[in-house]
Amino acid sequence: MDTVTGASSLVRALEDAGCEVIFGIPGGAILPAYDPLLDSMKIRHVLVRHEQGAGHAASGYAQATGRVGVCVATSGPGATNLVTPLADAYMDSVPIVAITGQVSRSVIGTDAFQEADIRSISLPITKHAFQVTDPADIPAVIAEAFALAAGGRPGPVLVDIPKDVLAATTTYTPAPPVRNPRVTPAANEIRRAANLIASSRRPVFYIGGGVVRAGAAAELRTLAERTGIPVVTTLMARGAFPDSHRQHLGMPGMHGTVPAVAALQQADLLIALGTRFDDRVTGVLELFAPNAAVIHADIDPAEISKNRKADVPIVGDCKDVLVSLNAAVRRAPVLTSWWAYLDGLRDRFPLGYDWPADGKLAPQYVIERIGTLVGPEAIYTAGVGQHQMWAAQYVGYERPGSFINSGGLGTMGFAVPAAMGAQCGVPDRAVWAIDGDGCFQMTNQELVTCALENIPIKVAIINNGNLGMVRQWQNLFYRGRYSNTGLSTHQRVPDFVALAEALGCVGLRCAEKSEVDDVIMRAMEVRDRPVVVDFVVGEDAQVWPMVAAGTGNDEIMTVRGIKPLFDEDL
Amino acid sequence: MTRHALSMVLSNVPGALARVVVLFSTRGVDVESLSLDPTERGDVSRMDVVVGLPAGRSPDQLVKQLSRLVDVKSVVAVADPARDQIGA
Ligand SMILES: Cc1ncc(C[n+]2csc(CCOP(=O)(O)OP(=O)(O)O)c2C)c(N)n1
Ligand SMILES: [Mg+2]
């Protein structure tokens, strides 16, 4: 038991919790904590340029490493700037701990300077929030916050600490380790699941981000190969099963592949693991997988039967569930005609794109080449929009955690700070942010952080001159009336190359097919600075296939007006 | 709307009630009555609440969502207290 300040206690507690990097910005209320931070030998503080960047960086770090990400902000505006990343991490079940300064205890509730009730503001977007009122509690609260963030279904946890609590003299008592109870999957449900799997004719593994969070990719592969059952991976699960694997049908959902969507629709059994039947996957719920029985395993009991009633509900960590299923499944189902049907769809409806009629670069080609040249050992992040969907479709993912994006909240501006966080966690891997010209303008200031902190990420701006995804909807559903979706980025406002240089990065530009490989290779050669490549691409490219919002998955269109599952009897 | 009675035990800490009430509002749950009483233990309170759920939504789901909250120590849907439909 040592006598310390609350601030020193906080830093020690963070060290004891295994924290090695913090993303943050100081300010009045959190200032006491920054003093002992200067002396920490274990914790690196990365000074971001906006707290939103700190939050997404913590998320990128967490998703790249599997550890808890940490961000720090001061009270008031610092704390409210964390709202978006907290909501983002909540939706995508990412373990982060956000530490905010607060005004001193004596003035809480008086509208003091830079007072914001962040604990209340963050209620619906955090797993839990602590406000520390006794400095002696700091070690226990931090230990508990880390355990809560990582345990069960992961998510964000807020720790709000008043300035006078940080400044107070207290004692440091190391917190006893917090144990996260782990539920064992119920044996009878595992048995029922195994029986259903053995007798199914048209089963499919519907894999969600929970499999990535649980680190269960190897167990999934074992079960998939033993049973021969086809696999689809959602946006949050890209990489949980290798794209190159013969049994992988791709991503389901609004911009999924025809075989993946058809597999779910025609299935007689969905083996849904760590997934939540999100509307972007199911389309109109009543029309989703109409003839399928459902095995649904998730660590969060509240997700099971939330949107689709499960016939076999299994509460448990996906890894435990898969280990149990691997032991219980003795007989592989006979799937010859199922595979004949699915392979037929694969042949007839592969992912593909047309080159723009105006001779401009195809965005899909750029992303495909990045994936090929940079390879599956890298980590890719994405913003939100068309480029995100193409990044999900045209990069081949072979490893869990190699694609990090904002799935649930759909947060524009996620790519750059998430890449920064990921690169801090895995310095030896290449990290590429595949970003939109719109998204990039929301958070590119973190490139300054990257340049100064020696975080050499690469950013590929898929510059289509527009808020492309919104424009696509205007094209399809608003008679091509393009209201407020032009960005003037093709007129070079801003000039992304000049901007990149101003931010301390190498700026490159590419507008020709023949130069794509060359510019990617040049970007890969730069190791001492971040690189931004402005890929100037056609503005009319659209994301296909597409299930229009408000329709059933059977109405998937491969291009405008062509509905292969709906129009033909397959 | 269907009506359901829930009985909960909450930690007696600041913010616990707020979290429960915000969950009701986030999930579109109508709160008809709510009472919070201290228990002899002191570190927990007892909360009884009658809620209205939109048609088709089960109280089970709500119970599970409430169970996720750190400060909710227990929650059960108590047997229908002779009330079925509200409005209708
Ligand atoms: C913070 C935020 N604001 C608005 C939106 C709505 N939105 C979704 S995609 C999109 C366009 C994104 O444009 P860009 O980054 O250029 O990507 P593109 O679709 O062109 O590839 C917008 C505005 C959002 N998802 N997030
Ligand atoms: Mg764009």
CATH topology name of the largest domain in chain A, in short, is Rossmann fold
Main sheet properties of chain A? 6 strands, parallel
Shape of chain B: globular
Within the CATH hierarchy, at the fold level, what is the topology of chain B? Answer: Alpha-Beta Plaits
Low-confidence parts of chain B, pLDDT < 50 over ≥5 residues? Answer: 84-88
How much strand of chain A?
Answer: 15-25%
Secondary-structure-derived class of chain A: alpha/beta
CATH class group of the largest domain in chain A: Alpha Beta
Instruction: Give the strand tally of chain B.
Output: 4
- Mean model confidence by pLDDT of chain B: 90
Largest beta sheet: strand ordering of chain A = 3-2-4-5-7-6
N- to C-terminal distance of chain A: 72 Å
Count of domain modules of chain A: 3
Enzyme class (chain B): transferase
Subunit structure (chain B): Dimer of large and small chains.
Domain ACT (chain B): 5-80
Catalytic activity (chain B): 2 pyruvate + H(+) = (2S)-2-acetolactate + CO2
Structure, explained:
The complex is a heterodimer of chains A (570) and B (88). The model of chain A has no long low-confidence stretch (mean pLDDT 97). Chain A starts with a strand and ends with a helix. Chain A is globular, with a radius of gyration of 24 Å. Chain A folds into 3 domains: 2-172, Rossmann fold (3-Layer(aba) Sandwich), CATH 3.40.50; 187-348, Rossmann fold (3-Layer(aba) Sandwich), CATH 3.40.50.1220; 363-536, Rossmann fold. The relative contact order of chain A is 0.11. Chain A is an alpha/beta fold. Chain A is built from 24 helices and 19 strands. Chain B is of the alpha+beta class and 88 residues long. Chain B has a single domain (2-78), classed as ACT domain (Alpha-Beta Plaits, 2-Layer Sandwich). Helices cover 23% and strands 41% of the residues of chain B. Chain B contains 2 helices and 4 strands; from the N terminus they run βαββαβ. Chain B has helices at 16-26, 59-67, and strands spanning 2-11, 30-38, 44-53, 72-78. A 4-stranded antiparallel beta sheet of chain B has the order 2-3-1-4. In chain B, a hairpin with a 5-residue loop joins strand 2 and strand 3. The longest helix of chain B is centred in the first third of the chain and has 11 residues, at 16-26. The radius of gyration of chain B is 13 Å and the shape is globular. The termini of chain B are close together. Residues 84-88 of chain B have low confidence and may be disordered. The A-B interface holds A 119-120, 123-124, 127-129, 131, 148, 153, 300-302, 305-306 and B 14-15, 18-19, 22-23, 26, 60-61, 64-65, 67-71. Bound molecules: thiamine diphosphate and magnesium ion (MG). Residues 385, 436-438, 464, 466-468 of chain A line the site of magnesium ion. Chain B: GO terms for molecular function: acetolactate synthase activity; acetolactate synthase regulator activity.
